[in-house]
Design goal:
Blueprint: E1 6-7, H1 8-18, E2 23-27, H2 33-38, E3 46-49, H3 53-67, E4 71-75, H4 77-94, E5 98-104, H5 120-124, E6 131-133, H6 140-152, E7 159-164, E8 171-172, H7 192-203, E9 208-212, H8 220-230, E10 233-236, E11 252-255, H9 260-267, E12 272-276, E13 296-301, E14 315-318, H10 321-340
Parallel strand pairs: 2-3, 2-4, 4-5, 5-7, 6-7, 9-10, 9-12, 10-11, 12-13, 13-14
Antiparallel strand pairs: 1-8
Helix pairs in contact: 1-6, 3-4, 7-10, 8-10
Length: about 350
Amino acid sequence: MANKKLKGKDLFFEILRKNGITKIFGNPGTTEMPMINALNENPDFEYILNLHESAAVGVAAGYSMALNKPALVNVHTYSGLSNAICNIFNAFLAEVSLIITAGQQHQKFLAFNPTLSGPLTELVKTSVKSSEEVKHNYDLPIMLQRAINLCQQNPKSPTFLSLPLDLFEEEIDNYHDIGIPNIKTQEGIISIDEWKKIIDILINTNDIAIIIDQEAHEAFNELITLSEYLIADVYNTFFINRQVFDTSHYLYKGLLPFTAKEHNILFSKYKIIFIIGKQFDYLIYSNENSIPESCKVIHLNNSEDGINYNFKTDYTFVGDIKQSINTLNNLLKDKIDLSCN
């Protein structure tokens, strides 16, 4: 607990600063003026003005993906949040670390149903990991830090906070600081012993397909090496916002088709389907299973999200994708070298 008397605006910028967030992307209005005015007292912050809220989310998402860090977006109450929804949902699908904030009217004014207000948390909740409205000034620090923490935890996703404008000028006597977790710590790496459970299957099987989802983008080079060791055809899912494989590579076979029936036909020529990332799905319903029963399924992801969700897996691995594939590649190289001697 901290006892230093601060205003909500002081803690808002202090917490952002501690998390390395000093850029705000947005399109503000009257309900965001307390934040905008407080920028004069925080010259190390930059407000990047966009002409439309959807553009603000898109620019912030690009910034977050390029620098691999969370970005803050500020939009104007219910109307501005409505404008931003499409790109917030895109960021949700792309697993981008964003903190979306919108100004809410003074809480004493809400009973009058003012025009520039609305159920903000209900509006956005299907497109974010968490959707909260700060009701009390002493909750602002913990709820803001929690939103920052959650958006960075796998699977990454936008979070939303509704900020009544009266919170910024009210003094806070006591508040709870939950601190900044070491988000950058890697997930566990799949060990050699774990990979050994399937190494013989991989080495002795010729017909392998690797399916790559966007979670695997950091393992770009490792995936190329893996595909070459296994001489495996490589496909990527169609909803990806990052390049996950060299599209000019001779083993790259393109996007997966759009229906489960087409998946089934495609996968019928393979014995192993190796999924790396969250999952793959299809756009158009067809009364077929995506994966034929004759296929063995191996699934590696950096979290349990998507594991055994739409289809059964025979071998499941949860850990840091880049480092785990690197471990598997080293094991494959040793096996291949040994067989050549």
